Amino acid sequence: MPAQEKETSNSLYRQWQILSRLSTGKWLGTRELQESLNREGIDISLRTIQRDLNQIAQRFPIESNKTVPQGWRWRSDAPIQSLPNMTSSQAVTFMMVEEHLKHLLPPSLIDEMNPWFDLARRSLSSQNNVRQWINRVRIVPASQPLIPPLVERQAQQAIYEGLLQDKQIECIYRSRGHQSEERNYTLNPLGLVQKGAIIYLICTRLDKSDVQTFALHRFQSATVLDTRAMHPVDFDIDKYIDSGALGFRVDFNKPTESIELKLFMNESDVLHFSESQLSHAQTITQLNDQLYEISAVVPFTSQLVWWLRSFGQKIVRIEPIEVFNAVHEIE
């Protein structure tokens, strides 16, 4: 390629990259543009960026705020722009969404997002510092890693679409256990929560008003109905999670209750709780040269019991007595 054509090609690519970074409403400074272009491997001076912007402004509806340093954006009367371009930081974000969150998105949204996922992969085909982020970041479970159970695809699609459209779901569900029965339910979907390797549907049944959880892999089939889902008036997914409902009840005949948990531990073992607290109101009190008391109000769930068992002999004493009995399996 002749030198002049190569320079024209480089200028066109550079200006395309500049244009694709401008937004409506928010001013983008030349220094920010320079940093963003540098991440893409484009070494460019502020003077060149300013010259490019002035040239672009002659052909495209962009404007400057006339300050020093200058900020640029699309004009308010500019038509909506859709440029097939993606920065490295945007591409990394889309690829991480695809890897870690794709299974929590309904198929109809995945279909819309697939072109963006493809564009993200193409945008990161060349090596640069941002591209390496994908190879340097991992999510590791805090507990024993488990292979996720298989979920019936058609049932999953129907559940996700029912939740997305706020419609009731008619399903066949197999409860836990080898001798479990398959039962028909009409459900009002309220939310989805992933806990470890398992995804749960939070919902109410048509014949019951209390909020329940159903494991996705136990659905044998599901169909979206035309009837709109009915919601409890005061339901809030975050409050539901904070209540400890997904920690599962110790006694299934009683609702989840909060208790003032007290753990007595030696100084060498208490550091764990100073770094990762049981609650925002947790307190740690030194009782003597070696013994400490950790106190916090937490939901009394089977998850709490299993977690306390993992400490073994490191916990000198547990209060209240019902938690102690549950941990040590005393009736």
The structural class is alpha+beta
> In CATH, what is the class of the largest domain?
Mainly Beta
Name the overall outline.
extended
Which fold name fills CATH's third level, the topology of the largest domain? SH3 type barrels
Unreliable sequence segments = none
Q: How many distinct helices? A: 11
What's the main sheet like?
Answer: 5 strands, antiparallel
Question: Can you write the helix and strand succession as a string?
Answer: HEHHEEHHHHEEEEEHEHEEHEH
Overall average residue pLDDT: 83
Rg to the nearest angstrom? 28 Å
3D structure, described in words:
The chain has 331 residues and is an alpha+beta fold. Strands 7-6-5-4-8 form a five-stranded antiparallel sheet, with helices on one face. It has four domains: 3-74, Winged helix-like DNA-binding domain superfamily/Winged helix DNA-binding domain (Arc Repressor Mutant, subunit A); 88-136, no CATH class; 153-242, Roll (SH3 type barrels); 258-327, Alpha-Beta Plaits. 35% of the residues lie in helices and 24% in strands.
